[in-house]
Amino acid sequence: MDKVVFKAKFGVLALALSAASTAVALNPAREREVELRTSWGAEVTADNAWREYPRPQMVRENATWQNLNGYWDYTIVSNGVSARHTVTATEVAKGRILVPFAFEAPLSGVGRTVQPWEKMIYTRRFSLPPLLNRRVLLHFEAVDWRAQVFVNGVEAMDVPHENGDLPFTVDVTEFVKSGENMLKVVAWDPTDTFVNAAGKQDKVTRGCFYTRVSGIWQTVWLEMAPERHIRGYRVDADALTGKVRMRFDVAGGGGDVAVDVAGVGSFTAGGGRLEFALPAGYRVWSVEDPHLYDFTARIGDDCVRGYFGVRTVGKKRDAAGNWRYTLNGRFILPLGPLDQGWWPDGLLTPPSAAALSNEVAFIKSCGYNMLRKHIKVEPRIFYHLCDRMGILVLQDAVCPGGEENVLDETKSLQRYGMFRRELKGLIDHLYNSPSIIEWIPYNEGWGQPDAEYTRDTLVWTKRYDPTRIVAGPTGGIDYEGGSTYEAGDAHWTPERADPAADTVELHSYPAAGKCPQARYRINVLGEFGGLGFRVPGHVWSNAASWDYRPGGMPATMAENERDFVALMRTLPPLVRDGLSAIVYTQTSDVEIETNGLLTYDRAVSKYSPAVLRQVHGEIYRAFEEAVNR
Fold first, then answer.
1. Each residue of 44-62: pLDDT tens digit?
2. Are 187 and 143 in contact (CB under 8 A)?
3. How far is it, in rounded angstroms, from Cα 316 to Cα 408?
4. Among 108, 303, 376, 498, which residue has the least CB neighbours within 10 Å?
5. In the prediction, which pLDDT does 192 show?
6. Of 128, 35, 118, 20, which is closest to residue 77 (Cα–Cα)?
7. Using CA atoms, how far apart are residues 613 and 368, in angstroms rounded to an integer?
8. CB under 8 Å to 358, separation ≥6 — which residues?
9. What is the DSSP letter of 198?
């Protein structure tokens, strides 16, 4: 049996390759053996590519907005150095690209790997009506990694935007005119050769690392807003008291915001701040009843629609003294898949909103109540779907990926300030989504700094957002006391009486396991399983396959389902013994990784959802027995 070994400063973790694996790294853009497409990707055109309003939790009413997705012109420029050491630029490629898909994604129409020494230059024209004292706001939902924006030949930003996963807005009012305008975006993406966060992206596909994504990969759009307008809001709604606090960020001067909450009443947010109590009989947000309160907020000529869920996330001990998650004061067992969010035709960009809706619905149909969004920030519509459909989300920060970033303590220190800014941006971006119940700053030591800096991150996260659970380093070095790894063996280190994190987490493949029970924290199985099975005709590569099985794959889908059920039935005793959250790897296959519940093209479920619901029901019943005894 071949092995691929990831060495880290905390020891060695050996991950098994299936018998069909290969040591040859595939060039993801040029040597893909099988061109997989999803059914949603097959329907994508320049006229329908991600046309939805991209900000469902704050929809501006009576505003002119334009979706700028579609065909853009592009030029790729390679930077070289001459004999005199002056930088020169050489044009290496040009053509049309379908935005919002990245250069490497088949749906972009390019399918080209962009190298770290190359720049991407996008251009397109757009038209505006008479401006009439309106601000023109240009929104980018995500550009990987550095972006500069030029409008009519003038750079419209004071400094370039540097982040591959979070949205940003450029007020281009002073640079545009009524009629036709020219937009240029210059992007540069070092992937994993710099101190930026690249997540699961890699230069070549290998194991659980996937095709890199360069440039614009989420929606680009324009909107016109009054001079004084609402930039954003933050809402906290306590399920235990019924109290709601709202804070509005107003551009163009302060003032009172008029707020109408459907079915509740009308209020005034003096200076943008408001607190009120919901009437008796208010509905809380839960997995079973994901009720949301819709509201409108007005200031001057500006009006936006939003929503909030009334829910309280916490932790408390059960009768045996084990820490458990709580939702609205009741014990809850988060159980769900590791959700990578990669697609064969769009890579990090889902082919459509309908594809995302199908994904969340499938997870619910399997009897899961949660997903762990793994080292990726999805389009806002994804979190809207989880809010509306009732799926808990454990949200990872995006970190550097791979063994080189675990080993490179110097790089971890160099990027620490950048990481903290990115983590704050992530929390600000997704704060209002009630489905998100936990932040996961560090995964398996990737980009994780030393003990002091790690603790500082966890302490700050809990202080900045006390409304959610903050995970300890999941599957890696837990300086608060917990599971660490040395020479492949798990060891228990003394637990701090004042841990900065709420959880202690084990990653165990393929068998389930748990850390020794913690005195102060929730015990979580942050990853396990990863049972591989290839479905002919629905694999990304005929040559390479990777999963976490210790031996070969079973011959039939029925045998694979039998193995899954047997693995799940090892969990109830662990749950009774204090295990309090479970994450199975994973929702779908991704490139050569073939351990999904679904195939990579989402065309085939390897398991019967009814069978999964049944075996997951056994786990939930064990949990109810444990917390009610």
1. 999 999 999 999 999 998 7
2. yes
3. 37
4. 498
5. 76
6. 118
7. 8
8. 40, 602
9. -
Of 296, 255, 261, 302, nearest to 278 (Cα)? 261
Longest dimension (CA), the chain: 78
CA distance 503 to 364: 25
Contacts of 610 (CB under 8 A, 6+ apart): none
Q: In the beta sheet, which residues pair with residue 78?
A: 90, 118
Given a cut of 70, is residue 16 above it in pLDDT?
A: no
Q: State whether residue 148 is helix, strand or coil.
A: strand
Compute CA distances 66 → 57, 97, 127, 178, 289, whole Å: 18, 19, 9, 14, 35
Structural contact between residues 40 and 354, judged by C-beta atoms closer than 8 angstroms: yes
Give, in order, the Cα–Cα distances in Å from 444 to each of 145, 292, 347, 449, 510. Answer: 23, 35, 23, 12, 16
Is a pLDDT exceeding 80 seen at residue 29? no
Better-predicted residue by pLDDT, 366 or 403? 366
Q: For residue 70, what are its two tokens?
A: 């579609």
Report which secondary-structure segment, H or E, holds 160: none
Closest to 407 (Cα-Cα) out of 456, 447, 453:
447
Q: Which residues contact 410 (CB under 8 A, 6 or more apart)?
A: none
Exposure on the CB side of residue 546, measured as CA atoms within 13 A: 23
Read off the tokens for 597. Answer: 């519940």
Whether pTM exceeds 0.70: yes
Residue position matching structure tokens 């004292």: 133
β-strand 229-237 against 323-327: which pairing, if any? unpaired
CA distances from 407 to 7, 200, 401, 487 (A): 8, 16, 11, 15
CB 445 within 8 A of CB 476: yes
Angle CA(376)–CA(382)–CA(383) in degrees, nearest 5?
A: 90
Q: How far apart are CA 268 and CA 455, in angstroms?
A: 40
Q: Note the Cα 335 to chain centre separation in Å.
A: 18
Q: Tell me the pLDDT tens digit for each residue of 108-150.
A: 999 999 998 999 999 999 999 998 889 999 999 999 999 999 9
DSSP string, 230-264: EEEEEEEE-TTT-EEEEEEEEESS---EEEEETTT
CA 211 from centre of chain? 17
On whether the CB atoms of residues 336 and 370 are closer than 8 A, the answer is yes
CB contact set of 466 (below 8 Å; sequence gap of 6+): none
Contact assessment for residue 16 and residue 549, using Cβ atoms and an 8 Å cutoff: yes
Rounded CA gap, 93 and 578, in Å?
57
